[in-house]
Design a protein that fits this description.
The protein has 156 residues and is mainly alpha-helical. Helix content is 60%, strand content 0%.
């Protein structure tokens, strides 16, 4: 897998194909896809590529959001018990935070729950200093009567 920093269409398609393959009934296909995703998670840009897929709602069942939450827990903050190298760059963190907020109003409840959990994992380390827009965004979503899903309330 190439470096995902550029976020090319080819890289996004590879990621979509790999995510889809994790749902394949064949054990060999699933195992290969999981190993490929694990290896790709060590590359710069993987988290933002995953956040982009989740934000675009290109794959059902909230799988990208669940994997993004796991990625955040492993690579977001050095010194955490679950931390694994490499740490996500500041630029990539900013992209992921922005895409998480965009994804939070998803009408699919399970997707919203997974995004909320990813937001909570980021907020523990980044709010309020590095993510001041989080609370105003959450309040806006809570007050928005057209969004009755309420998944954003699960962030805290």
């Amino acid at each position: 897998m190439a470096n995902l920093d550029g976020g090319s269409d080819q890289d996004q398609q590879w990621l979509l194909n790999c995510l889809s393959a994790t749902l394949d009934p064949s054990h060999e296909v699933r195992s290969f896809a999981e190993a490929s995703l694990n290896q790709a998670s060590l590359q710069p840009g993987f988290g933002s590529a995953l956040a982009k897929v989740a934000a675009n709602r290109e794959l059902p069942l909230g799988l990208p959001a669940v994997l993004l939450k796991q990625f955040i827990k492993k690579h977001w903050q050095g010194g955490e018990e679950s931390f694994e190298h490499p740490v996500v760059s500041s630029d990539e963190k900013a992209v992921i935070r922005r895409l998480l907020l965009v994804s939070l109003d998803d009408s699919y409840r399970k997707m919203c729950t997974a995004i909320s959990m990813a937001i909570a994992a980021v907020a523990v380390n980044d709010w309020p200093e590095e993510w001041p827009e989080l609370l105003p965004c959450l309040l806006k979503l809570i007050n928005d009567q057209t969004n009755m899903n309420g998944g954003q309330l699960q962030s805290y």
